[in-house]
Design goal:
It is built from 10 helices and 31 strands. Strands 3, 4, 5, 6, 7, 8, 9, 10, 11 and 12 form a 10-stranded mixed beta sheet that branches. α3 packs across α6 and α7 packs across α9. The longest helix has 17 residues. It is globular and about 85 Å long.
Length: about 575
């Protein structure tokens, strides 16, 4: 703070229980005037694993904040990966990297510097990496600034294309998030000569202007543009939107990368007026999937207590008796005549109510403090939500239900994405539970229509096979296995068990593909009506009981592909 060209600030936000303050951003950088130089989108330089490109990549002009002198030997690429995200000047995934052509520079001019290096591939295409060039006893080495990133020994087949001169984070090229602008103010705010809400590209950058209700799918997710992106198009979009209060103004929301598979764009969370203007009009943030799963487990735990113990107690001393499961798997309660005069009528604690109590409890464990209604409200509701719009009556009862169930609940991890062997996340998720010493892996079902925005866990089959292969490597065996979907949860265990050829428990993983196929065949039969046509669903939610005594979070990290086996 206090350095020239920086601006530190905090942002005050309103919620159901008053004001909170958050850092606006670490620093705002005051850039040089914009200059235009060549940008090579097809090079998509890898700050990590090599990325192939065509032999003669085409360039498009891009405007970046650089001094006007000596631009001719400079060019720009985008960083892809995390292996240079370290040291004093980290390069983060998606940053703009400006290089000076280095083919004619002496070795001394690139020694110890970050460079763009062309490396050979098995095909005719080139591959490119961003690495720091260091001299060793064996010659030259391409080194990652991130200690966890790959490094390799250089040889004569590798060519230094450019030397890094500057780097820019996409957010440093925009005004502070939340800035309100007229149409005429748009170009100046983004440092461009021209920018119109009717043109998606300006100065080599892409902009998405949100106008209609439904443009926001979630408070942190926007629908992408109607037009299909070209291969050369940028993956980062700067988001702007019409202000709800003044019809001829726009509000800058942030910058992020398009999720091309679903044509959606993540963005920093919007406030309540913005969400009501462009979203579905609700006031609650989306509940994390793992919290809904744990809320279901909480309901099941309470309803399996002895009948005399099926009650919860409000902080004011009132008790409610548990009446059973609600139609959408929530918890039905009613006032206990012994402690309530008159007793309140039957009401439902939804999975949303219970799930947000769990989220708040996790937040308390991580950050300290009290587990109370204000904490739940701050986490659950969008900025600007008045208390009258919250479920303030049921929040206290949801916290009471959590406290009543706490001694009987399983230890549960967060939701993990399965990563492939190159550390790329797949669209497939699981979590672990531990109860009475028994460790269980719950692998979540595939669902939705393929290629649509509601598709989930689309890499189910590949990811399950990866999990089984990692179990084999770690010598983990399966003590038992069941279908765990809501539709069959009330069936006896014997009817939910995954049984069939190759499934004699405990099962050791000798052949991951073969075992995955056997599990798929078995789960397709569970819950099917007699005489039903078709082969059944082989991508259901399943529960695998594991023979393992390790720490639950470390086991989950290894199976997800984010923690080395040696750390178990």
């Amino acid at each position: 703070a206090g350095q020239p060209g920086t601006d530190f600030a905090v942002r005050f936000e309103t919620g159901p229980d008053g004001w909170t303050a958050r850092p606006r951003r670490a620093a705002e950088i005051i850039p040089f005037p914009r200059q235009t130089l060549a940008y090579y989108p097809d090079i998509r330089a890898a700050a990590g694993h090599a990325v192939e490109a065509s032999l003669a990549p085409e360039s498009i002009p891009v405007s970046l904040p650089l001094k006007a002198d000596d631009l001719s030997p400079l060019f720009a690429v985008r960083v892809s990966g995390h292996s240079m995200d370290g040291g004093k000047t980290p390069l983060r995934d998606g940053d703009w990297a400006v290089f000076r052509v280095a083919r004619d520079l002496p070795a001394s001019a690139v020694e110890g510097r970050v460079a763009l290096v062309q490396v050979p591939t098995e095909t005719d295409a080139h591959a490119f990496q961003i690495k720091r060039l260091t001299r060793t006893r064996q010659g030259w080495s391409l080194t990652s600034d991130n200690p966890s990133g790959p490094s390799l020994q250089a040889d004569a087949s590798m060519i230094v294309i450019g030397r890094l001169e500057r780097a820019f984070a996409p957010e440093s090229l925009a005004p502070p998030r939340g800035t309100t602008l007229t149409e005429a103010e748009l170009p100046t705010a983004f440092g461009l000569d021209t920018l119109s809400s009717h043109t998606p590209r300006a100065g080599g950058h892409l902009f998405l202007f949100l106008r209609e209700q439904g443009s926001l799918l979630e408070p942190t997710l926007a629908a992408g543009p109607d037009a299909r992106l070209n291969a050369a198009d940028e993956e980062f979009y700067t988001i702007a939107m019409r202000s709800g209060a003044v019809r001829d103004r726009w509000r800058y929301l942030g910058v992020d990368r398009m999720i091309e598979l679903y044509n959606t764009l993540p963005l920093p969370e919007v406030d309540l007026p913005t969400w009501r203007l462009l979203g579905d009009g609700g006031v609650s943030r989306p509940l994390p999937t793992h919290a809904q799963t744990r809320a279901q487990a909480l309901v099941e735990t309470l309803l399996t207590l002895p009948t005399a113990d099926q009650w919860i107690e409000h902080p004011n001393g009132q008790r409610a008796i548990l009446l059973g499961r609600a139609p959408r798997n929530g918890l039905r309660i009613a006032g206990d005549p012994k402690t309530s005069t008159p007793p309140f009528r039957e009401r439902t604690l939804s999975l949303q109510d219970l799930g947000w109590a769990i989220v708040a409890d996790d937040h308390r464990k991580q950050h300290g403090g009290l587990l109370d209604e204000p904490r739940v409200n701050q986490l659950r509701y969008l900025e600007g939500t008045p208390k009258s719009s919250t479920r303030f009556i049921d929040t206290a009862w949801a916290l009471a239900a959590l406290e009543r169930a706490r001694p009987h609940l399983s230890e549960t991890t967060d939701l993990f994405a399965v990563h492939d062997d190159e550390a790329h996340p797949l669209d497939a998720h699981f979590h672990l539970e531990k109860h009475a010493g028994q460790l269980a892996l719950i692998f979540h079902s595939r669902g939705g229509t393929g290629g649509s925005r509601d598709a989930r866990n689309t890499d189910y089959t590949r990811a399950l096979e990866l999990l089984l292969a990692r179990m084999k490597t770690a010598h983990l065996s399966i003590a038992d296995a069941f279908v765990d979907s809501t539709e069959v949860r009330d069936l006896p265990e014997a009817e939910r068990r995954l049984a069939g050829e190759g499934l004699t428990y405990p099962v050791s993983v000798d052949d991951a593909p073969k075992l995955r196929a056997a599990l798929g065949k078995a789960m397709a039969k569970v819950g099917r009506a007699p005489g039903a046509k078709g082969s059944g669903n082989s991508t259901k939610r399943i529960r695998l009981l594991l023979v393992e005594e390790g720490e639950i979070d470390e086991v989950a990290g290894y199976l997800a592909g984010t923690v080395p086996l040696a750390d178990l």
